[in-house]
């Protein structure tokens, strides 16, 4: 399993997120849920949003896994620092990032042979 430190990497060594420094251009960064609980660390989202803004790319982030219904999402807004324009992790300098998106509900693949849905 990956850690937040591995995903972020370091800019000076061009590891993790900053391996994209080797690309002339990228337009979309999607960080799939990698934590055992099915979420993405908010600090990773914040740094990725800032990096995407600097590189003029879009960041796509899944909402917290606990948000199963629209009512869950609405009820959970305050708990994760959201307002109607986005997640606190997608903010920079107190303003929402113009290059980050979050969708609800997250995408799921149909049930597998074992009857389990797979988060995309």
List keywords for this structure.
3 helices; alpha/beta; three-stranded parallel beta sheet
What does this structure look like?
The chain has one domain (4-119). Helices cover 22% and strands 15% of the residues. It has 3 helices and 7 strands; from the N terminus they run αβαβαβββββ. It has helices spanning 4-8, 42-55, 70-76; strands spanning 28-30, 58-61, 91-92, 95-96, 100-102, 108-109, 118-119.
Brief account:
The protein has 120 residues and is an alpha/beta fold. The chain has helices at 4-8, 42-55, 70-76, and strands spanning 28-30, 58-61, 91-92, 95-96, 100-102, 108-109, 118-119. 22% of the residues lie in helices and 15% in strands.
Individual helix count:
3
General form: globular
- How many beta-strand segments? 7
User: What is the terminal-to-terminal distance?
Assistant: 16 Å
Report the structural category: alpha/beta
* Major sheet summary line: 3 strands, parallel
Total count of domains: 1
Radius of gyration: 15 Å
Question: Average pLDDT across residues?
Answer: 75
Order of helices and strands: HEHEHEEEEE
Query: What is the helix content?
Result: 10-25%
Strand arrangement, largest sheet? 1-2-5
The low-confidence parts are 80-94
Strand content: 15-25%
Topology:
Elements: H1 4-8, E1 28-30, H2 42-55, E2 58-61, H3 70-76, E3 91-92, E4 95-96, E5 100-102, E6 108-109, E7 118-119
Parallel strand pairs: 1-2, 2-5
Antiparallel strand pairs: 3-4, 6-7
């Amino acid at each position: 399993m990956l850690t937040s430190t591995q995903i972020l990497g370091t800019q000076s060594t061009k590891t993790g997120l900053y391996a994209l420094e080797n690309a002339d251009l990228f337009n979309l960064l999607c960080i799939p849920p990698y934590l055992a609980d099915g979420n993405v660390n908010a600090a990773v989202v914040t740094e990725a949003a800032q990096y995407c803004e600097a590189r003029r790319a879009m960041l796509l982030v899944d909402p917290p896994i606990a948000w199963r219904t629209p009512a869950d999402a609405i009820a959970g807004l305050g708990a994760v620092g959201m307002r109607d324009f986005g997640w606190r992790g997608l903010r920079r300098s107190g303003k929402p990032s113009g290059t980050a998106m979050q969708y609800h509900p997250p995408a799921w693949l149909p049930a597998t042979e074992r009857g389990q849905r797979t988060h995309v």
